[in-house]
Specification:
two-stranded antiparallel sheet, 2 helices, rod-shaped, binds zinc ion
Length: about 120
């Protein structure tokens, strides 16, 4: 039953890698969304959460009541997204190379068995 557990482990590893690549993709996607958010012109308006007066969506602070908005952290979230994306991508690629190595090793063993 060694072969069955090998197949199961390979399946689990491949699913984990797919999840890693999905996380990497999501991080890079969020980074791009953040960059677009940061550089788009301040044309949209919204109502303030605390005083409900009309303010710009790019406002860091409401000019009427002083309510703070998280826009100033846009740069750090871009950096965090980029960093996380790189880490997940690296783990994914490292896993792919490990799996390929594993299959190459198995293939070699199989050939050896065939010739013996
Ligand atoms: Zn306000």
């Amino acid at each position: 039953m060694d072969n069955l557990s090998d197949v199961f482990m390979s399946g689990v590893a491949i699913i984990m890698l797919l999840v890693m690549f999905c996380f990497a993709f999501m991080c890079f996607y969020m980074m791009i969304v953040n960059i677009i958010d940061k550089f788009k012109p301040a044309s949209k308006l919204m109502s303030c959460e605390s005083c409900e007066r009309t303010i710009s969506t790019n406002a860091y602070v409401c000019p009427h009541c002083g309510q703070h908005y998280g826009n100033s952290s846009a740069f750090s979230s871009i950096t965090v997204c980029f960093f996380c994306g790189c880490v997940f991508l690296f783990i994914g690629l490292a896993g792919v190379s490990l799996i390929l190595e594993e299959y190459g090793y198995d293939l070699l063993n199989l050939i050896k068995k065939l010739f013996n």
